[in-house]
Amino acid sequence: MKTEANIATISVPGDLDVLAAPALKRSLEGLIDGGCRRVVVNMANAGYVDSAGMGTIICELKHMRQEGGLISLVNVAPRVYRALALMRVMDFMPVSRAGVRRSVRELDPSVLPEWRRTFRVAAGQMAQVRGRVECLCEGLPLTADEVFDLTLAVGEALGNAVDHAGERGVLVTVAAYADRVVVDVADCGQGFSLGPDEELPEAAADAERGRGIKLMRMLADSVSISPKSTGEGSVTHLVKLFSNSVVAR
């Protein structure tokens, strides 16, 4: 299990059956009761899920929803995905199949956004910035869960910027295009570079940047970091794709 702020990841060690379900239930309840509001359950090692496993997932999802949070499943094997589909689990929570990731094409530089908003992160105002990003995204063709995830991803990017560069000089830009919303978090730190498909080395215990990037990649469709075009520092670039092409102004 890995945790960062109010986000956590859990790996199911094997089949999620009547014997394994109680351990998952205890882990999820401990996180929810401890204040965590976003849990990603890695199902890569689960080749089978029975009714007890599904019941645990649905029960704890309801528990989390009551607290205003979200649980999702990732790296779900094809047979398990089919079973979850038959039980209509996807109607209530995000479920991602193993090896399936949305392809994010690069935007043509000549394409202008439908709208763009840029604002500075003032001292002690990170919560207000997250709230502003959330409000802007609520007018876009994203589900409530997608807005929730993107807001958390932006919070991770803000946390990295403040940790490594301080709050002075941190800027957030939100831009809506026909098929996506793009959020850039710019700082004035020492600079860092990471391509959208570039793998990170395994994070050490004190390497919070690495863990934050991995979490952001679970929450957004594309995450990259590049040096600023002018001055010192870097820009964290987050992309969330729309399921349709209608953009609210």
UniProtKB/TrEMBL annotation:
<feature type="domain" description="STAS">
    <location>
        <begin position="1"/>
        <end position="111"/>
    </location>
</feature>
<dbReference type="InterPro" id="IPR036890">
    <property type="entry name" value="HATPase_C_sf"/>
</dbReference>
<keyword id="KW-0418">Kinase</keyword>
<comment type="similarity">
    <text>Belongs to the anti-sigma-factor antagonist family.</text>
</comment>
<dbReference type="InterPro" id="IPR003658">
    <property type="entry name" value="Anti-sigma_ant"/>
</dbReference>
<keyword id="KW-0808">Transferase</keyword>
<dbReference type="InterPro" id="IPR050267">
    <property type="entry name" value="Anti-sigma-factor_SerPK"/>
</dbReference>
<keyword id="KW-0723">Serine/threonine-protein kinase</keyword>
<dbReference type="InterPro" id="IPR036513">
    <property type="entry name" value="STAS_dom_sf"/>
</dbReference>
<protein>
    <recommendedName>
        <fullName>Anti-sigma factor antagonist</fullName>
    </recommendedName>
</protein>
<dbReference type="InterPro" id="IPR003594">
    <property type="entry name" value="HATPase_dom"/>
</dbReference>
<dbReference type="InterPro" id="IPR002645">
    <property type="entry name" value="STAS_dom"/>
</dbReference>
<dbReference type="Pfam" id="PF13581">
    <property type="entry name" value="HATPase_c_2"/>
</dbReference>
<dbReference type="Pfam" id="PF01740">
    <property type="entry name" value="STAS"/>
</dbReference>
